[in-house]
């Protein structure tokens, strides 16, 4: 199993104290956590993208540029690049710049985004979000792999003899597709033979499992090499304590604050599938949902349980920014020392290893249990 630390850079105030983290401090911690993740042996660090709400990830490539300058080994990614909203020319330019700065350590995840307010904010029609996604993806793919591009589409002006600069570090980097609620995303990924990352954050596992199963069926039907049909999965938050009971009690205020915040936006689990938490209580989220809240032993057991359902080989985790900075670091250190080795011992994968010919060209993954790094 490979592990990723994801930060969408949410920045709402504390639900109990009302205290807010200053934006400069919050963004600094993103970079520091990337450095720590590399030190702890995480394989990947990802930054989200949103353009509305209490979120500071409106410029993810700027953040990834800062991370590239402070790290040397860890793979850099996005979670997700909201491609439905963006001009593929700028996406190609910005992300190829990150790819160059990191010397070929970039892979990205694309999607339509999970924030409805982004579309009117940027003057786009949300009813056409899937059309935007498909067209922008196909153009981005072309721009990254080809020079002197001539192209025409429905939603942006055509191109004649266009070449984006800089070029990617060593050829087009791999593109994953984010999957949360729609069949469209997994169908698009399967059509092109790309891997997927299931959001696996707010809903019962069956909702995500159905999409993963569909992806694998469509991927196989398209005649793609099954060795590259990788699946990743998110989580509903990571929090560790000595016992699961302690973890539940300590995490309760933050979870209840998240539920209240989504309710205040009118997100009802019955009508806003994929946007509202389907689990009203922290106990329910821990027992039946994807939240990785508990003792290290229980969290490792849960990841392996979900692997039995999803067959995923990349596990993405996030820590709550409202924990004290030292507490956030403690959770990450415990995860790296007490959870990840247990899961890795049970789940092996070729992802980002020597047999993964499509991995980021400059990425050096640690082969855990081996004595050396594998380029």
Automatic annotation (TrEMBL):
Organism: Krasilnikoviella flava
Molecular-function annotations in GO: monooxygenase activity; oxidoreductase activity, acting on paired donors, with incorporation or reduction of molecular oxygen
Oxidoreductase listed as a keyword: yes
Taxonomic classification: Bacteria, Bacillati, Actinomycetota, Actinomycetes, Micrococcales
Alphabetized UniProt keyword annotations: Monooxygenase, Oxidoreductase
SUPFAM superfamilies: Bacterial luciferase-like
Domain of life according to the entry: Bacteria
Record domain Luciferase-like: where: 1-310
GO cellular component, as recorded: cytosol
Pfam families, per database record: Bac_luciferase
Protein name, per record: Flavin-dependent oxidoreductase, luciferase family (Includes alkanesulfonate monooxygenase SsuD and methylene tetrahydromethanopterin reductase)
């Amino acid at each position: 199993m490979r592990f990723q630390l994801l930060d969408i850079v949410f920045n709402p105030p504390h639900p109990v104290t009302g205290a807010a983290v200053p934006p400069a401090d919050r963004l600094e911690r993103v970079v520091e956590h990337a450095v720590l993740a590399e030190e702890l042996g995480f394989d990947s660090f990802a930054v989200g993208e949103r353009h509305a709400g209490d979120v500071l990830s409106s410029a993810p490539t700027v953040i990834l540029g800062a991370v590239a300058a402070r790290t040397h080994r860890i793979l850099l990614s996005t979670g997700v690049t909201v491609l439905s909203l963006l001009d593929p020319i700028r996406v190609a330019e910005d992300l190829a710049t990150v790819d160059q700065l990191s010397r070929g350590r970039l892979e990205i995840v694309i999607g339509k985004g999970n924030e409805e307010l982004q579309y009117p904010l940027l003057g786009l029609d949300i009813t056409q979000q899937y059309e935007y996604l498909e067209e922008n993806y196909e153009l981005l793919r072309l721009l990254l792999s080809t020079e002197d591009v001539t192209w025409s589409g429905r939603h942006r002006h055509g191109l004649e003899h266009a070449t984006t600069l800089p070029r990617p570090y060593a050829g087009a980097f791999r593109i994953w597709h984010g999957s949360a609620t729609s069949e469209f995303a997994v169908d698009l990924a399967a059509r092109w033979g790309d891997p997927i990352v299931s959001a696996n954050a707010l809903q019962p596992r069956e909702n995500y499992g159905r999409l993963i199963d569909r992806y694998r069926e469509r991927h196989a039907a398209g005649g793609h090499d099954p060795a590259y049909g990788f699946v990743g999965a998110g989580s509903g938050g990571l929090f560790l304590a000595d016992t699961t009971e302690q973890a539940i009690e300590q995490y309760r205020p933050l979870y209840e604050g998240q539920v209240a915040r989504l309710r205040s936006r009118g997100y009802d689990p019955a009508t806003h599938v994929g946007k509202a938490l389907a689990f009203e209580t922290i106990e329910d989220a821990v027992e039946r949902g994807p939240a990785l809240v508990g003792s290290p032993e229980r969290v490792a057991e849960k990841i392996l349980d979900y692997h039995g359902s999803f067959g995923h080989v990349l596990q993405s985790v996030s820590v709550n920014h409202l924990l004290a900075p030292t507490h956030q670091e403690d959770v990450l250190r415990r995860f790296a020392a007490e959870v990840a080795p247990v899961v890795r011992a049970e789940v092996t994968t070729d992802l980002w290893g020597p047999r993964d010919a499509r991995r980021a060209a400059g990425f050096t993954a640690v082969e855990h249990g081996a004595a050396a790094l594998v380029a």
